[in-house]
Design brief:
By secondary structure, the chain is α/β, with parallel strands linked by helices. The chain has 13 helices and seven strands. Helices cover 46% and strands 11% of the residues. It is elongated and about 65 Å long. It starts with 24 loop residues before the first strand and ends in a 23-residue tail after the last helix. The N terminus and C terminus are likely disordered.
Length: 330
């Protein structure tokens, strides 16, 4: 006779975030769009937002909406209450804020001090580090709205991480708790890293807004609906294939079409001419370097771009600068 099988052990209840060990009291200095979202995501991981500071009415409303019940206090009081402090202020404000907090004795030994600036690494926190703080630079590569949707967007978001080597694991662990993906950035490379993000994301908004404006002027009733599929495909192709995804009149060497564009822009949107020419030159340089633009077609195109003039046959004036004078994309 077979022995009775042991009873199946009861399923373990999942551990609630609040019951996890080593949870930290979190404070936010600067209730802009970023700070409350990061604090809310840390709260989902079981940490406890305990204090937030803000100046404008909009920031105070934002903090109240995303961190309800968390008291609004001055920056020094935030540091007094928190073990993990998020410094989410504009880049140009950050150095002075850190120096002021350190000089006034607000920084405590062992306190985790995190800034979210893309421009700076951990060195900007040196005044606080000398006071005993543990400095971390965690920059989310994401655009923020100041609403709860930002917390959802942090899932899978890359963070530029810079910290002293002994704090690297702690920095990466915090990013993972917020749902992000840590990407290590060396201290000296932070400005270049940030320039790359700004070039891609910030300038993209300007380009799309200008494109929509031109389409409206041309009579398109729903430029957003027209551009959506096109831009989505272009972005996907660019991320997959880089320069090989280049299409359009510049990469084909259609000097006449480019000249016509310049002529129309001069008439209907003169403020966009300089930007169009600069981006077209950059595109031509990259298309040439990757063999997409044939050299025999590039000369007429680059003359049009260098002169910024249009001609009936699509060629620039021959007395203008030659193809070798086309500006690079550096």
């Amino acid at each position: 006779m077979n022995a009775p099988s042991p009873a199946t052990p009861p399923a373990q209840e999942p551990v609630e975030p609040k019951d996890r060990p080593a949870r930290l009291a979190v404070g936010v200095v600067g209730a802009g769009r970023v700070g409350p979202a990061l604090a809310a995501s840390l709260q989902l991981a079981g940490h406890r937002p305990v204090a937030v500071s803000g100046v404008s009415d909009a920031s105070l409303r934002r903090a109240d909406a995303m961190l309800p019940g968390v008291p609004l206090v001055p920056p020094a009081e935030v540091l007094a209450r928190a073990e993990l402090v998020l410094l989410t202020v504009p880049d140009d404000v950050l150095p002075g804020l850190v120096e002021g907090l350190a000089e006034t004795g607000a920084v405590r030994p062992g306190q985790l001090l995190v800034h979210t600036s893309g421009r700076y690494g951990a060195a900007v926190l040196d005044p606080a580090r000398r006071a005993g703080a543990l400095p971390l630079a965690l920059h989310p590569a994401m655009t923020f709205t100041g609403t709860s949707v930002d917390v959802q967007r942090l899932a899978g978001c890359s963070f530029g991480v810079t910290a002293p080597e002994e704090l690297r694991l702690a920095a990466e662990a915090l990013v993972i708790e917020m749902g992000g993906e840590p990407e290590w950035i060396e201290e000296a490379a932070r400005p270049l890293y940030h320039a790359g993000l700004a070039l891609g994301a910030n300038h993209l908004v300007t380009l799309v807004a200008q494109s929509m404006e031109l389409l409206r002027t041309a009579g398109v009733s729903a430029p957003d609906r027209m551009l959506g599929p096109l831009l989505g495909a272009a972005l996907d192709n660019a991320l997959r294939s880089g320069d090989a995804a280049l299409t359009g009149p510049v990469s084909r060497g259609d000097a006449g079409t480019v000249a016509a564009h310049v002529s129309e822009l001069r008439e209907h949107a003169p403020g966009m001419v300089a930007g169009y020419l600069a981006m077209a030159r950059a595109t031509a340089d990259r298309a040439l370097a990757h063999g997409l633009l044939k050299p025999e077609l590039a000369e007429d195109l680059l003359v049009v771009l260098a002169d910024g003039h249009d001609a009936a046959d699509g060629r620039g004036h021959t007395d203008g600068p030659g193809a070798s004078d086309g500006e690079s994309d550096r």
